[in-house]
Amino acid sequence: MTTNKIIMEIRAGAGGDEASIFAGDLARMYQRYCARQKWDFSVLDANDNGQGYKHLVAEIKGTGCYEAFKHESGVHRVQRIPATERAGRVHTSTASVAILPIVEAKEVHISDNDLEVTFSRAGGPGGQNVNKVETAVRILHKPSGIVVASREERSQYANREKAMDVLRAKLYEIEQARATGNVTDMRREQVGTADRSEKIRTYNFPDDRITDHRIGKKWHNIEKIMEGDFDPIVKAFAETK
After folding, report:
1. What is the pLDDT of residues 70-128, one digit of tens each?
2. Considering the entire predicted model, what is its pTM?
3. 107-180 CATH
4. 3-class SS letters over the chain
5. Domain 5-105+183-239 class?
């Protein structure tokens, strides 16, 4: 599939607060890379626990963004000494990433009768208006149980459209899985169970090394990569085609 608009979903996995911090680190890495590529990175919904993200959903728009990020789906594992660790022990934590292409409305039929839409006041930054008007949108798709939300836009309508983009992307993924195989297997491949043993990539800070377990590649200068210098990983996957 060739698309220039995607949904990126990041969830903290095993590891408590450190997993949330790592999820935030991944989000910043992707966001900084998008800035370098002049791609638009918009956070649609996020659960920020003050340390990092328990859950974040972003929309990314830009030429080549799907090709660059499509290999990011799966469980990412980090090995490092958390800032809160007094004994200096290395901890292992995880976060899962899912990359979903945004599809046109005509690709996925959704009945209004299948939706339960609720509105609330958007929290966080955005000025006084954001807290006075119920602009945040939460949509439950009753047949599948999928819940999506958007709170970053200024209007109720815009947030509903963004949330519907996420819902269509998720339902399209399920439809594709049904056409080609097992839905459960595909979802597990996309985001895993976020268990430490399920990983596509390991970020080992003590050894200054990132290892992708699917293609057997390793990169050093981990801090530089986490600051958004993500091209070495993107190019490595492009070379494996």
Report:
1. 999 999 999 999 877 777 889 999 999 999 998 888 888 899 999 999 988 766 444 44
2. 0.82
3. 3.30.160.20
4. CCCCEEEEEEEECCCCHHHHHHHHHHHHHHHHHHHHHCCEEEEEEEEECCCCEEEEEEEEECCCHHHHHHHHCEEEEEEECCCCCCCCCCEEEEEEEEEEECCCHHHCCCCHHHEEEEEECCCCCCCCHHHHCCCEEEEEECCCCEEEEECCCCCHHHHHHHHHHHHHHHHHHHHHHHHHCCHHHHHHHHHCCCCCCCCCEEEECCCCEEEECCCCEEECCHHHHHCCCCHHHHHHHHHCC
5. alpha beta
